[in-house]
Amino acid sequence: MKLPAPTFTDRLLASVAPAYATRRYQTRISLNLAGQYAGARGNRAALKAWRPHPGSADGDTIGDLPSLRSRSRDLNRNNPIATGARSTSRANIIGSGLRARSKINHGLLGMSEEAAEGWERHTETLFDLWAQSKLCDITLAQNFYELQALVFNTVFESGDTFVLRRKPKHPNALVPLALNVVEADRVATPTDKQNDFYIRDGVKIDDDGAPVSYYVLDDHPGDNPSYTQTNYREIPAFGAKSGEQMVLHIFERMRPGLNRGIPQLAPVIELLKQLDRFTDAELMKAVVSSFFTVFLKTDGDDGLAPAIPQGAYPGFGANEVTMGPGTVVDIGTNEEIQTAQPANTANFDPFFTSVVRQIGVALSIPFELLMLHFTASYSASRAALEMAAMFFRDRRTWLVRNFCAPVYEWFMTDAINAGLITAPGFFDDPVKRAAWLGAQWIGPARIILDPLKEWKAETEAVNLGARTIEAVIIERGGDDFEQTTTQRAREHRARAEAKLEPETLAGTGSAAPPAPEEPTDKPTKQRKTEKKA
Q1: pLDDT in tens, 376-389
Q2: 124 or 472, greater pLDDT
Q3: Where are the beta strands (DSSP E) in 171-303?
Q4: pTM here?
Q5: Which of 97, 91, 117 is nearest to 106 (CA)?
Q6: How far apart are CA 147 and CA 134, in angstroms?
Q7: Residues 394-397: contacts with CB under 8 Å, at least 24 apart
Q8: Alpha helices in 240-314 (DSSP H)
Q9: What is the pLDDT of residues 95-113, one digit of tens each?
Q10: CB contact set of 374 (below 8 Å; sequence gap of 6+)
Q11: Is the CB of residue 212 less than 8 Å from the CB of residue 204?
């Protein structure tokens, strides 16, 4: 470490008071070496043994990924909190699937509003037909909306996943596009390229850290543990001629230079496992405490059969017994039974709740929503749902940008090449390409605790101009504005024809004013005033 140079004041003091100047300069050096952050000091008892290695993003991550993935998947299979966190997040972020609504910039493209609306409805119909068909999946098992949930689950458990651009297996597909979702374990560095600096756990990068290609195993390592370097295929990240993206690497980059994703349960894996063991122990303690077991002690052979004959149950020997509801256990004359009283379980729920709250903080899911337990006040529960909605909205936007929007661009490219869609300038002008690709993705509706209060608030916001009806329909109802408006108009016409509600004024959308009352023949009563005497 470079020592601080003496300042002008140091040199001036050294000429008149050398001893004082020396002590002053030594103090400055000590402060410079020690730093000003208490968290970086090594002379404190709590920090002496805490010396983490300042490694790079890949250096701190890639070596731990196999263990993190396997443990995260085990928790998602067997731990109710981990399973609930994944299911709750998926239900609020994706729901039954994010649906695309075309929103092109018709002004930039030189189209009229009517022509743009017709083009949008035509494109939406074609994309929905492709998305609902299982031909869009190379395995023919899921449609595009179900693949969204698969991608989300895989990223949640494994940290990242890969989507390959493939051609469908059947010739009757709407467009020549199929998606191949690859699990994280299948992308790894070949054996003969382990020392290549530019290959990071199967991701080949250039000097700037941008992806060049991916090494994908033909089989999953779990199915074929004895795989060799011949099982790999190098898939380019971008097309050689077109330059279009051929592989989607879906993960959240937490640090600059990170080339593989980290499972979302990574910060709480140990906490979840310990809480799982604690819960099992408390459950066993409660079960044992509920048993009423009788131990029969005799002076000799009374002819009773032992509770567990030797060899009757695997794992129990001659000196092993089991407890159960109403079990009678025969013991010898000189044997005594001593039981350890189970500890009180009254503190289980407060401790469990406290730990689950920490897990919820790490996963950005409020405790009430994580445990599906709403017992607080309306204001507290509403605040928790608002915080959760903000997190879900961010994750939905992330999924759209990294998966849904690129797939929509792939579809548009293939549909235009197939002559199904006309989009002038799509391949020549990047500005027009972006204008043609404009789309809005509609997710599931938000949770409403008190419908009357919240819908009144939305009505006031719309009347003030702070919100639009389209935004309310999408966010609160999870529906499309055009479809909802068309359906409401159809319903209104049907009700008006059935004389269930007044007809609207043509072109205004407002109800017609009530007809004036017909005059009656009855004379109007006038107030009579009496004169004072």
Answers
A1: 788 888 888 888 99
A2: 124
A3: 178-183, 199-200, 203-205, 211-217, 232-236, 247-251, 294-297
A4: 0.78
A5: 117
A6: 10
A7: 395/89, 395/93, 396/93, 396/94, 396/98, 396/441, 396/443
A8: 269-290
A9: 999 999 999 999 999 999 9
A10: 368, 381, 449
A11: yes
